[in-house]
Amino acid sequence: MPPFRGSPIYLILVFFFALVTLFPLANSDTLPQLDELHSLAITSHQHKKHAQALEHITSAILLLYDAEHSTISRSQASSNLFNTKGVIHKGLHDFPNSLLAFDLAEELDDTKTNYNAYYNRANCLHYNFRHQNLTAEDVSTFLSNPSRRALPGDLEAQFLQAAAADYEKADLIIRSINDPHYDFASFCNDYAICLRKLRDSRGAIDVLLRAVAHSPENLFTRGNLVIALKDARKLAEAAEHSRVAIELDPKNAQIRHNYGLVLQEMGESGREQWETALSLDKDIYHSLSSIGHDEGNRGNLTGAVAMYSAALNTVKRVGATEEIGSLQVQIATACIPPIYESVSHITRTRDSYTINLSRLLNQAATSENEIYDPLTSTGSGSLGYYIIYQGHDDVEVRRLLAKIYWKFSPSLVVLPPPQLLLPPLPLPPDRAKIHVGFHSAFFYRHSVGLLMEGVISNIDHTKYHVTVLIQTPEDELKDDVYTRINSSADVIVELPNSLEDAREIIASHNLDLLVYGEVGMDSMGYYLPFSRLAKRTALFWGHALSSGIANHDGVVETGLDADLVGGIDYFVTSKMFEAEGERARAPQDRYSETLYMMEGLTTHFMPPMAPRANVDLAYFGLPTDPSKNIYLCPQTLYKLHPDFDALIVNILKLDVNGIVVFPVAVKVEWTEFLMERMLGGEAGEFRDRIIFVRRMDFDEFIAMAKLANVVLDPFPVGGGRSSLEIFSTGTPIVMPYHRTNILQLTFGMYKTMGILDLVCYNDEDYVKTAVAVGSDRALEARLRQEILSKNHLLYRNELVVEEWNEFILFAVSNPRPVLNAYFSLAVKDRHLDQKHQSIELEGGAQLAYAIKLNHDDPMTGQSHGIMVRIAVGEDPLVYARGLAEKIGAEPVKFRWIATLLQRGVRRLERGVVDTVVLLLNGGEVKVDVRWGDDLALVARFVGIRYGLNDEGIDWLRGVLELRVPQHGGVDWNLDGCFLTVAITTCKRLPLFIKTVDSYLASLGGVEKASRSVCSFLVVDDSSAESDRQEMMARYPSFNFVWKAGEDRGHAKSMNLIMNLVETRYLLYLEDDWLFLDGEGEGYVRLVEEPMKVLFGSNAAQVLLNDQSSRACAYADPMEKCLRSGNVGKAGWNRDGFWVEHEFGSVYPAHDFTYWPGFSLNPGIWDLKRLRKGLGGRVVFDSEDERFEQSFSVLCLNKGLDFAHMARISVRHIGTEVSSYVLNGLERPFDNV
C-alpha cells in the first residue's frame, strides 16, 4: 500500500477536483517553515531517502492545508509542492500517487507557468509504460483524467500522446519565459524521444534543432539529432551535424562511430571514423563490427571474421550479452564473398555457409545466444544475398538462414491482431474494396520500383484499395518513379526503420493481401515477413529467388499455431520463367512459398527512358574503329560465375576483332578481384580486349547498350530489368538458358516476342551465337529490326494487369497455403510396398530404429530377411550381440549390425535440422532429419516403418539430400570423435599445465572437447614421480606413457605416438604453448576450420598459427608479428581463413619461406595422407639432432602439401629453457 494511504492528504488527492476553490495563501509566518521543509524534502530525495522526503513534503503541504474548508489554495507555492511530491512518489515507483500529485500541481498553478509539473508528468507517462508493470490501479488513475481518457489508440499510445501533450505545454511555457538557467537540452531530448516513439520524426527533428540552436555545445543533444536525421534519411544534414560535434569534442568515440554509420549510408567509407572511435575507446564493439562489415563487403572475409570475433570478445568482456546472438550470426555468415576465385571456391564457401548455420541451429536456444535485435545481425553475409550467384538451387540454404531467426529471435514473431485471423472474404460492412498493400525499400528508379510501378498503378482500383508501404528513402531518391508510384496509391505509408513500429503500422492497415517487392535485398524487408502482418502475403521476384521464410518452419521452431506465425504464402512468377520438365527438380521444389505462375511477364513494365543523346563509343573510352565488335556484359560483376571466364576467352579466340566490355563494380576491390581472376587465367592473353568502363547513369546505360553489337547475358543470374531496357534499343542479347539457375527472365521476354534464335542450350552454342551476331553486321541488323518490331509486347502489357487482378482475387478467396507441396510430399503409388505390414512394437514400447537385414543361413545356405527392431532405451550393443549369437553371425557382421543400431538410436539425441511431411495412406508422416544423420539410414527406416518399397526409399533419400545440403559437410560427416590430441612433455610441469588448461578452456572443457577428441595421449620423458602423480590427478581421463633411460628423446616420443594413435587425425602439441582463445571460443578456430582445410585441400597438416614469419609461427614476439601486417599474406591464400604453404619464395610478406612446410608446432595432421605420401609409415630419425627439419624436407621431396591458418591462435611460452637441455640431450643450437 502506498505511503500515507489513509492520511487526510491522500483524501485531498482523491477528491481534490471536486473541492478546489480559491482561498488566501497561508499567512506569512508559515513561509520560512514551508521553504525549509520543501528544501529538506528535495535534499532527502536527492540522497535517495524517499520515505523521509515524503514526510517532509507532506508536512509542508499540511502547512497550506485549510482545515476549515478542507482544501488548499491555488498558488505557485502549492503547485511547486505537489510537483515535488510527484517526483518523490516517482522515485518510490508509486505511479498512481505520482500522477495524482502532478495533476494537482497543474490544478493549483494559478499562473499556469509551472513547466516543471508538465515536464515531470510527461516523463512519468512517457517512461512509465515500458519500464514498469502497470497495475489496474495505475491504469485507473491514468484514465481518471477525462482529457486522457478521450485519447485514441491502445493504452501505450494514450500514454505517449498524453506525454507529448505535456511536453508541448512545458515547451510553450519554457520558450515564453526564456529561463537562461533551464536545462533545455535535456528537456528537448526527452520530448524528441517521445515524438519518435509516436513516429513523428519531423517533430522530433524540429525539437532537437531548437535544442541545438539553444545549446550548440551540448553533444548529447546533437548526437540524438544526428541519429534522428540518419533514421529519417536526411543524411547530408546528419553528416554536417556530426562534423560539428567532432569539432566540439574530437575524442568522443560514440560520435565518431555514428558519423561512420552516416557516411556508410551515404555510400562513403566510415572506416576512418570507426578506427578513430576504437583508438579512443577499445570497448566500442559496434565500431569493431562495423569494420567487420566493411572488410566483408570489400571481400576480405578473414578480416571480417576477425573483427566480428573481436567484437564478440569485447561484448562478453563488457557484459553486453544482448549482442552475442547477433555477432554469432555475423561470424557464421561471413564466408560468402561477392567474387569467387573458382568453382571449387564456390563449393567450399557454400559448404562453410551451410555448416556454420547448421551448427548454430543445432544449439539450444538460450538468453545468451538470443538475437535480440535482428537488424544488428545483418553483417557482411548480407542475409545470404550473394548465395544466388553460386549457380545452385538455394531454397534449402535460404530456409536454413530463416530457421536461425525463427529459433533464436523470438521478437521477430509478433502475434497478429484478431482481425488478421479473419478470412478476407466476404468483405466486412465497413469495406467496399479488397485492401492490397505493396511493400519495398526500393520504390524509386531501382529494379524493384521499375518492375512494380506499372502493376501498382494499373490494377483495378475500383475493386482494390491500394496501400504503398515504403521504407523511407533518402530525399534525393524520391524521383519520378517514386512520385508516380505514390500518386497511384490510395494510401502512402513511409515506414520507420524500426521493426516494432513498422510491424505495428502495417498490421494496423488490416490488409487482405500484402505483396513484398523483394525479400533479401533490404534488412527491414527480410525481417518483416516473420510476423503475420496481413491476411495473405505474396512475394514478387524483385530478388528472383525464394525467401526461405516458411510458415511451416516457423511453426516447428516457435511451437505456435500456423495462424499466428508469419511466412510468405505465395511466390508470383511466370510459366515462362519456370522450366518444368527441363530441370532435375520441379518448380515448386525450389520455393518455400506456394508458386503462383502467371502466363505473362508478371511486370507491367513502362517503356524505358530514351538513351542519352549525342553519345558514341569514345564517350565511354571505347575504340571507335568500325572493324571492332563490341560484346557488352552490362551486369554487376558479382553475377559473373567463374565458368563464364572460359566463354569470354572462347569468344575472343573466335573473334579476333572482338572487345568485351564490363562496367566496374561499386567497390574497387570487387573489380580488382574479378580482373585478377579473369586476367590471371587464360583470358590474360586478351587483357587488351577486355575493357572495364565506369559506372553509368540510367540513360547512359541505355546508350551504351544501343552502341554494343551484342549483349552477353551472364549466368547463373542474367538480366531482368536490364534486359527490358536493352531490348528497347533493339540490341540482341545472347541468353544461356542451360546455365540460368533462377528465373529464366530474358528467355521469357524472348518467348513473349516470339524470338528464340538467341536462346542457347550449351556453352558451345552460346559462344558461336555470340560471335555470329557480334561479327556479322547484317545478322545483327536483322535481329535488331525484329526485336524493335516486337518489343512493344514487353511494355505496358495489359495481360499482366489482368493476371494480377486475378491473382489478388485468388489469394484472398482461398485458405492460406501454410503447408505447400515443398513441405508435404505426396507419395506416389509406385513408391508403396503393397505387402507392407506394421513393424510397431507391442505393449506401448516406442520404436527407436528398425532395419531389414538379409541373412544367409550357414546351415541351409538359404537367404531370408530379418526385421531388426529396437526400442527407445534398449542397448543396441546388447541387442546386436544377442541377434548375432542367434543367427550365428561372424564377428564382422555383429560389429556391422551393432554400428547400424547404435547410429539409429544415437541420432534421436541430436537436434532436428529439417522436417519433411509425407502424405500417404490418407495421413501425414513427419520425417525429422537430425544433425549428423546418414540420410540413407533415415530413408530406409522411414520406408520400412511406413511402407515404401526400394524405389520409394531411394526417392525419399534423394529428397532428403536436396533438402539438407549440409549433410555432405565436414562436421556432418565426422559423426562423433575423430581426433587424438597427443602431447609430449619433459620436466616442465608448470608449462604442461598451462598448455593443457588453455587448450581445454578454449574448447569449453573436457566434456565439450570430447565431441571431436577421442582421446588425450601424453608421452612424458623423465619427469619426476611427483610431477607424474599430479598430471594423473589433474587429468584423470588422459592416457599417459612414461619414458626414461634409453627411451629418452623427442624423436622416440614422436615414433611412439605414431604407433599408438588410432584415429586418422592428430593434433600434436609440445608442452610449452598457450592457447589464446577465450573460454569455449576456440572450437571453430582450433578444430572446425582446420578440418575444413583438410577436407577441402590436399594438405597433410594444418598449422594453427600463421607462418609468414618466425615471429608469427611462434607468436613470439607477438608485437613483431602483428606489426608486420603480413598475417594471412604469405603463401597461396585460400578462402580467406587459410594459406597453402609456399617454399622457396622471395615474396616480401613471406619471411619464413625457408622452412619446407611440415612442423612440430601446434597443428592437425592427416596421418592417412602422411603415411600414403611417405610410403606407408611415419618415422622420425632419433639419431638426427635436426630430425624435424629432415622430416620436413623429406615431406617436401615426396610432394606433400602443407597449410596454415591465416591468424594467430597459440603462443610459444617455453623460451626459458629447452626440454632437450632438461633431459640431458642438448642440441648444438639450443643455446644459440
TrEMBL record:
This is O-GlcNAc transferase C-terminal domain-containing protein. The lineage of its organism: Eukaryota, Sar, Stramenopiles, Ochrophyta, Bolidophyceae. The keyword Signal applies. InterPro entries: Nucleotide-diphossugar_trans, OGT, OGT/SEC/SPY_C, TPR-like_helical_dom_sf. GO terms for molecular function: protein O-acetylglucosaminyltransferase activity. The keyword Transferase applies. It comes from Triparma laevis f. longispina. Transmembrane segments: none annotated. One of its GO terms (biological process) is protein O-linked glycosylation. Keywords: Repeat, Signal, TPR repeat, Transferase.
